[in-house]
Description:
About 80% of the residues lie in helices and about 5% in strands. It is mostly helical. β1 and β2 form a beta hairpin. α2 crosses α5 and α10 packs antiparallel against α11 (about 240-270).
Amino acid sequence: MTVKPVLKGRTRERTTARVAARLRFEAAARLLSRLSALNIVEGSVRLAAQAFITALPLLMTVAAFAPGWMQDLLTDSLRAVLGMHGETLDELRRVFSATGAARETAGVVSAVVTLVTATAFSRALQAVFERCWRLPRAPIRAVFWRWLLWLLVWLAYLLLQAPLRNGFGAGTATGLVLSLFSGTLLWWWSQHLLLGGRIGWRSLLPGALLAATGTVLLSLAARVLMPTIMERSLAEFGPLGPVFTFLSWLIAVFLVAVSGLALGEYVASTPWYRTAARSPSPGEVGRSVRTEAEGSTRRWPDGRLDGGER
């Protein structure tokens, strides 16, 4: 009399387990397919190369025109991020303190050209964001000022790394919390700015949180590992050794960041997150594009056209 209910219960449990396993497998397969389609490694290497080629000269130009206290703050911030000390830190201080010859060589015009050239880094980052969210390229006239603004905010954020990581004197634990909070805000705002507001704030939050968490944890690991690696590369290969080490570290940073952004887009597109955040699916964002012979007009979810028309 009681055998049939027991058998039915076991059958139901097995069926539920099979369905759950299939759903987990399909979710993992979709995620892996999405990550593969994004070419995360290629995008990370491209971002690292742009940061190395354009952003580093911008930092040196800023140091050439900056007052002494700002040079010290920039050096301390890079030391806090990379954990540099010893001969490597001395080399960095010498580079940033050589302002006289650098200022005469650069000039104001060259500094402006360096800033404009550094927007290639902003453009590469914008391309990664658009690829993550499967959006078309935005017109240059609508985003050029965003590239410049993002660079200026990024420079200010980099300058504040030393006091941030020290918790403004409150200790390492407070610094860790502030680093996670400020990093999340930076990645959150960066996506919104460079995407031109085409994706809602709630949908952008998971990627920002994952990218910030990953990069902060990697930075903590760098403070332990990078000093030894830098000193060894300097001893074995001379001044070029730390350069190659720094480039490898940049690739690792952007690999973690881009992976977090891609995973965040996947999380934001899941039904449970859309329900919890009460946000529309990224694929359902009401957006119409009308292409003409002389250009294109885009209509965003609020009915606004490019240029602020309605």
